[in-house]
Amino acid sequence: MFDRAIPLFQDTLKLRIAKLGPDHPDTLKSMAHLAADYQAVGKMDLALPLLEAMVQETTGVKVLALHHDISTVTGEEVVLFTLSESPLFRQAKKK
Fold it and tell me: How far is Cα 1 from Cα 36, in angstroms, rounded to an integer?
């Protein structure tokens, strides 16, 4: 099931990056969904760069390392999107 969704999430991510930009909340959600599907099919080598990009786009901080066993992708997604939607965080990122 997840492996069939991956091409759709890949296409959606490409379109959202092109139309909305890499730091738009909808683009970041697409990254999270694609990363979660990669994780579900055991492709952590593809999931980790997406998760790192999400963190960097949301926080402006380059990730040095993420643990290889990310079992809480959904929890991380919630934290990242909570941060990205915060007006104070958006103002800080623009500075």
Answer: 13
pLDDT greater than 70 at residue 57: yes
Alpha-carbon distances, residue 67 vs 52, 73, 86 (angstroms): 11, 11, 26
Q: How far apart are alpha carbons 11 and 52 in whole angstroms? A: 19
DSSP calls for 21-72: -TTSHHHHHHHHHHHHHHHHTT-HHHHHHHHHHHHHHHHS---S---S----
User: How does residue 68 score in pLDDT terms, banded at 50, 70 and 90?
Assistant: very low
Going along the chain from its start, the domains and CATH numbers come out as: 2-94 (1.25.40.10)
- Tokens 């999931």 found at: 47
